[in-house]
Write a structure and sequence with these properties.
The chain is an alpha/beta fold and about 575 residues long. The chain is built from 17 helices and 22 strands.
Length: about 575
């Protein structure tokens, strides 16, 4: 059987390498293709002609050892100028050649040096840079997938460092960082927000009054009956309509609903709901009237009014004859409002906490400006300290505030069309589960579908692509797949690969750490890329077990007391 190792112009090439490039001369045009599948004896049953060929091979013993490969055309060149896509196709009998170094120079000669960012080198030609078209990377969305330890955090860090360079002084990138990995990326060119900020970092605040009513109710009071939910909705709407008059530019009252992001006092809401449950009544002149308050409460401090204790049986004073029965929900709300872990939401710093009248010192415009309107290209939103039960809703609110603000900015200089914004969502399977319906999933789906029109791009990063909503993956024009070993994850990646390149997923389990398949809009040639190694993101690097376990003496056990203190004070030591 002939060898698969061939020498061309002094260079050795091996036939049938998955991901290898090939050239097919057709007249004055050179067609270029990538190998996506190889086999022997039995041809792949993908078409009627293939099935016929397979039957012929089975009958003809002289063709024993027949070897074949499937290639996918991706571009052509005429006169040394490469162009993505093909205008003509090869015919039976056309020769297939290896792609040499000279051919690679033609393929990758189309430089993105002025419109792109370089993230590494092409694996098949280490001297050729791998450059992403920045326009398409941002506007057509991107998915970065790979198993744990494959190099996703390193790749994201390389991209963030590239876009934060001085050649992009007006870049805007907002990173949702669930593990606090990216706070050290591009120091001096990023602004970090977290619940417990360190020196040089900023407070993460997300005011509750900007939440849609359903999410606010679920986070604060929990589940309610439809009747009680309608009562609370009406109260919130009325309070927002009243406090809207205190705004600099109040909207018309008829345009205000319980979902409108207008400040109101949730403590006052709690106080009024609680007061209704506690009221007692007496009879005067044949009429049932409310008893007087014995001790005045304080809505700001969540102290209830004290009424005369109701009597036993039919004796005065009487209980409220029609209580709503929401005592458990009120206790949950009081617990949330006084819990320091939720202070970023219910008692936000910076003037975003309304007084009892609903007046605030700072509004949403200042919040958005602090997140994406500062003089740094990168905004790192560290959500690792958020309570897990509200993290998804808080991230959804944050993204909705930013997106809607840029949407309604229209033709202003801060709009997404004038100054595009890139959203990077790490651990995307947490926020975009298949079949989910959270507010976070709704806003991200909206951005994936229509963000391009308004200058908002999306990059999702995940180790479990099989668990992500298929709508999001299908909207990503660029797919970057690092080493992926799980079969269901590889199947999802294969289905998302453009240009019939799904066969390349056979490469994924064998990729080296930091190496990936780049296909789609931003990488005009399907390429196997070796990503540059940057300083490992904080929290993203594996510990050096051998060095750590070789330390002598062991760490001081008293440090567990400090760890407990950090836990109770919600501090990262």
């Amino acid at each position: 059987m002939p060898t698969t190792l061939v020498l061309v112009e002094g260079e050795s090439y091996r036939v049938g390498q998955i991901g290898g490039f090939f050239r097919i001369p057709v007249g004055y045009t050179q067609l270029y293709a990538v190998c996506s599948q190889v086999g022997a004896d039995a041809a792949p049953p993908t078409a009627v002609g293939d099935l016929a060929l397979e039957r012929d091979l089975a009958k003809d013993e002289s063709l024993a050892g027949y070897r074949w490969m499937t290639i996918v055309l991706f571009g052509e060149s005429t006169g040394g100028l490469f162009e993505r896509g093909v205008g003509q196709y090869p015919t039976v009998g056309d020769e297939v050649h290896f792609v040499t170094a000279a051919d690679l120079a033609v393929i990758y000669g189309r430089s993105h040096s002025t419109t792109g960012i370089t993230v590494g080198t092409v694996s098949s030609a280490s001297g050729i840079s791998a450059t992403l078209d920045l326009n398409r990377f941002v506007s057509r969305h991107c998915a970065i997938v790979g198993s744990t330890g494959a190099g996703k955090s390193n790749l994201v860090s390389v991209i963030l460092e590239a876009v934060s360079l001085s050649q992009f002084p007006s870049a805007r990138v907002l990173v949702i960082d669930p593990h606090g990995e990216y706070s050290k990326v591009s120091p001096g060119r990023s602004r970090v927000f977290r619940v417990s900020p360190a020196d040089g970092e900023h407070d993460l605040v997300v005011p509750y009054w900007a939440l849609p009513f359903d999410e606010l109710l679920a986070i604060t009071f929990g589940a309610m009956s439809p009747t009680n939910e309608a009562v609370v909705r009406d109260m919130v709407q009325e309070m927002k309509r009243t406090s809207a008059k205190l705004l600099a530019n109040p909207p018309p009252a008829e345009a205000i609903t319980a979902d409108t992001p207008i400040p109101f006092s949730i403590r006052k809401l709690w106080f009024e709901l609680d007061d209704f449950e506690r009221q007692t009544f007496k009879t005067e002149a044949g009429q049932r009237v409310l008893t007087k308050v014995e001790e005045q409460g304080d809505p700001e401090k969540l102290i209830s009014n004290t009424y005369p204790l109701h009597g036993p049986g039919a004796k005065e004073p009487f209980k409220n004859p029609a209580p709503r029965g929401i005592g458990r929900q009120l206790e949950l709300a009081r617990s949330r409002l006084t819990d320091s872990r939720y202070a970023f939401l219910f008692n936000p710093k910076g003037g975003y906490a309304p007084d009892l009248a609903g007046k605030v010192a700072a509004d949403i415009d200042g919040l958005v400006a602090s997140w994406v309107g500062h003089d740094k290209p990168l905004s790192i939103i560290d959500v690792s300290e958020l309570p897990s039960d509200v993290a998804t809703d808080v991230v959804g609110l944050l993204l909705r505030i930013v997106y809607d603000t840029l949407f309604w900015a229209s033709s202003l200089a801060v709009s997404g069309k004038s100054q595009p914004l890139l959203l990077v969502v790490d651990e995307a399977h947490r926020f975009l589960p298949e079949g989910g319906s959270s507010s976070c999933q709704r806003i991200l789906t909206r951005i994936a579908k229509e963000g391009r029109k308004y200058g908002v791009g999306l990059t999702v990063v995940t180790q479990r692509p099989s668990e992500i909503d298929t709508t999001i993956i299908s909207q990503c024009g660029t797919m970057i797949a690092l080493r992926t070993t799980n079969p269901s994850d590889r199947s999802r990646v294969a289905a998302a690969f453009p240009d019939d390149l799904g066969g390349l997923v056979d490469l994924l389990p064998s990729l080296r750490t930091g190496e990936g398949l780049f296909v789609g809009e931003a990488m005009f040639v399907p390429s196997r890329v070796r990503v540059w190694l940057t300083q490992a993101p904080e929290g993203g690097a594996d510990p050096n077990v051998r060095t750590a376990w070789a330390n002598d003496p062991r760490p001081d056990p008293k440090q567990y007391a400090q760890a407990l203190r950090n836990w109770r004070h919600q501090l990262k030591g």
